[in-house]
Design goal:
Blueprint: H1 2-14, E1 21-25, E2 39-46, E3 52-59, E4 70-74, H2 83-88, E5 94-97, E6 102-104, E7 109-111, E8 116-119, E9 129-133, E10 143-144, E11 152-153, H3 154-171, E12 180-185, H4 188-205, E13 213-219, H5 228-239, H6 245-255, H7 265-278, H8 305-312, H9 315-320, H10 337-342, E14 343-344, H11 351-357, E15 363-369, H12 377-384, E16 390-400, E17 403-413, E18 416-423, H13 435-446
Helix pairs in contact: 3-4, 4-11, 5-12, 6-7
């Protein structure tokens, strides 16, 4: 049966209407000289007739690509490019050098001829092969061959990702034996557990090619927006003294968890008061200023798109990345039109997928910054404690260079293991703020070492 499935997948690849392709990228505009690591880019067609063409960046491990794990990494949004993870979240081996960037007061824009690239010493490719995928369709350089195929949902795009990884490994059989982890941040907290479950089910039911899945990795994950995430945020802002005890208790009594069922005037007033208290804060990192849109400083993280848009829309960059000409018009870091025009959120919660995986031989790394309001560590811990797991290693500090880097707790259920850790001083997507600590965390976890 499994041999028949493999033959069918191979036949699909051979008869593909648009051949999948992978090309080695030896240089990138903005970086001096040849790249000191192996970067491959390409497309894999998925869906009926392969009308959806998913673009990827595959970066081989700088240590031992033959045996190091393969990490499939997805970026949140939905609709945000994988280049965000590579350049800004320090998951990849390059970052931007902002020397030469200047503010044009006439046009009120930040300008540069071509942003310069520099090596990132804390890239996760130091210890892992990483496959950065532009998903869902319409993200980054991924595109569809017809207008109808741009319409998608959480479930549909997740199924396409499962199809993608099967085809990628068929095309790159030398990596099929490597341990596979599925990872992502932010909105991908809804997607990654579902994909992991799909892979596990495919292996068990022999409904697809066997994949050497070992676990999943989630940073600042959205999990249950209308329950644990919202409750966690209210509890967190009270815990860090942003809410008075009186308002916190009044909100609990008048609204009841999860604080969104505004069934009374008192509840509505309390919720609005809570929102007013946190409104002046930067939701992604409350230690950083909330940027004033009237003067878009490049040092405001939300304005990083001013630089990356310039780079990715450069014709020489697109040629170097082997982007198919005419498939994508103006490129944006986060395609906001997806959420308003072509993408439908159909997953209300991913908790059930986590729960399902606790009965499988799977490892999970869940981490979050202790200064973010978007997906607070309090909310993350709330849903973790609801899983059928027991504590193996209770809450304790972990260290990098003899300094506290965060706090870690380990859980298990038979052969299922979950490590939860905070990253001290970090905001949403912690590796963006604490790259050295985040690499240490990932490296130790991969090696089954104590954080």
């Amino acid at each position: 049966m499994k041999l028949l499935i493999l033959l069918l997948i191979l036949l699909m690849l051979i008869l593909s209407p648009i051949n999948s392709e992978s090309r080695l990228v030896k240089y990138l505009p903005g970086f001096p000289g040849n790249l000191p690591f192996k970067l491959h880019t390409g497309y894999v067609g998925v869906g009926k007739g392969e009308e959806v063409q998913l673009f990827y960046y595959f970066i081989e491990s700088e240590r031992d690509p033959e045996t190091d794990p393969l990490l499939l990494w997805l970026t949140g949004g939905p609709g945000c490019t994988s280049l965000s993870a590579i350049y800004f979240e320090h998951i990849g081996p390059l970052s931007f050098n902002y020397t030469g960037v200047y503010f044009n007061r006439t046009t009120s824009t930040w300008e540069t001829d071509l942003p310069a690239l520099q090596l990132n010493p804390y890239s996760w490719t130091k210890v892992s092969n990483i496959l950065f995928l532009e998903s869902p369709v319409g993200t980054g350089f991924s595109y569809a061959t017809n207008a109808e195929s741009y319409y998608t949902t959480d479930i549909k795009s997740s199924k396409q990702i499962y199809e993608f990884i099967q085809k990628f490994l068929m095309e790159h059989p030398q990596f099929a034996k490597n341990p596979l982890y599925v990872g992502g941040s932010s909105y991908c907290g809804l997607i990654v557990p579902f994909i992991t479950q799909d892979i596990v089910n495919g292996n068990e039911g022999e409904t697809g090619s066997h994949i050497n899945i070992k676990g999943y990795v989630l940073g600042s994950p959205l999990t249950d927006p209308f329950d644990t995430d919202r409750i966690g945020k209210i509890k967190f802002v009270h815990r860090v003294s942003l809410l008075s005890d009186d308002l916190y208790e009044s909100t609990k009594v008048s609204c009841g968890a999860p604080y969104w069922n505004v069934s009374s005037a008192e509840c509505e007033n309390n919720v609005q008061a809570v929102l007013d208290f946190v409104a002046p804060l930067n939701d992604e990192n409350m230690l950083e200023p909330k940027c004033d849109n009237s003067f878009p400083s490049i040092w405001c993280r939300k304005n990083y798109n001013l630089i990356i848009d310039n780079w990715a829309n450069n014709p020489q960059v697109r040629e170097a990345l082997n982007v198919r000409e005419g498939t994508v018009g103006h490129w944006t870091r986060c395609n906001q039109t997806l959420k308003t025009q072509s993408y439908m959120t159909t997953m209300i919660s991913s908790f059930g997928y986590h729960q399902y995986l606790t009965n499988r031989p799977i490892r999970a790394l869940i981490y979050g910054g202790d200064q973010e309001l978007s997906a607070t560590y309090v909310g993350i811990l709330r849903w973790i404690k609801r899983l059928d797991v027991v504590i193996d290693d209770d809450w304790r500090p972990w260290f990098v260079n003899d300094l506290v880097a965060g706090y870690v707790t380990k859980y298990s259920n038979g052969h299922y293991n979950l490590t939860f850790t905070t990253v001290k001083g970090a905001g949403h997507c912690p590796s963006e703020y604490k790259p050295q600590e985040s690499l240490a965390m990932f490296q130790r976890w991969l090696a089954h070492s104590s954080l």
